[in-house]
Amino acid sequence: MNYEVLEALGQITREKNIDRELIWETLTSGLIAAAKKRFETGDNLDVRIDETSGVMEVVAQWDVVKEVEDPETQKSLEAAREIDPDAKVGAQIEQQLPFEEFGRNAIQSVKQVVVQRVREAERENIYETYKDRIGDIVTGSVQQIDRGNIVVKLERTEALLPWREQIRRERYRQSETIRAYILDVQRSTKGPQIILSRACDEFLELLFRMEVPEIHEGIVEIKAAAREPGDRS
Q1: What residues have CB less than 8 Å from 77, skipping those under 6 apart?
Q2: How many CB atoms lie within 10 A of CB 19?
Q3: Which domains does the chain have, with CATH numbers?
């Protein structure tokens, strides 16, 4: 665990627009879980991360007492002085847990926890971003055509243009740039599902507002818009 690891996590938070504190909290909880499993400790663990030096430490802490009632969080004076010769009753001692003793599986488990949390946070971030854009027109590129449905590549994610929301007689080619109306945004187990439309009346009205200056400036008002997609508007 070193500066390169922290720098990599920092880069993830910047590129994916994920809260930095969320990543550190996930890393901390993952390290504590790994330490508990490896060293069979209780809730007496603390993780310290120095973002400047890149040093990360997992330490076990105990209160020094005359009579031990909770072995997970307390040590007798005699046992405490085996760790810290200057230990005194009423004080707290600590011992660093070496990462090299965590084991490869434990470190891999921490990595998986962080990666999974990053994915969940990114999905939620994308969902919130596009949910607030329902009713907007977006520009993307045709990524895949599957049974008439179009997968559209957007910024940071993909969207679906179902066949029923397409204009009749329009033909699409892979990598072609298209504009569409965000009709709906739904949560799913694979991440947010963004539904697009090129056939709805709202798409036509927004296009008019974008392309016709008089409408955009309010000189001309749209009372209603209706269309027969592929035939007339």
Answers
A1: 64, 65, 66, 87, 88, 89
A2: 11
A3: 3-129 (3.30.1480.10), 133-216 (2.40.50.140)
Where does the chain show beta strands of DSSP type E?
A: 45-49, 56-65, 74-76, 92-96, 137-146, 149-154, 157-161, 177-186, 193-197
pLDDT, tens only, 126-153? 999 999 999 999 999 999 999 899 999 9
Burial label for 211, CB within 10 Å (0-12, 13-18, 19+), is: exposed
Tell me what the mean pLDDT of segment 110-117 comes to. Answer: 83
pLDDT at 191 over 80: yes
Report the candidate in 207, 156, 157, 158 with the shortest Cα–Cα distance to residue 180: 207
User: What pLDDT, on a 0 to 100 scale, did the predictor assign at position 204?
Assistant: 85
Cα diameter, the chain:
90
Could you tell me the CA-to-CA distances from 157 to 5, 140, 193, 199, 231 in Å, in that order? 26, 10, 9, 22, 32
> Hey, CA dihedral for 6, 9, 13, 14, is it positive or negative?
positive
Predicted confidence (pLDDT) per residue in 77-98, tens digit: 999 999 999 999 999 999 998 8
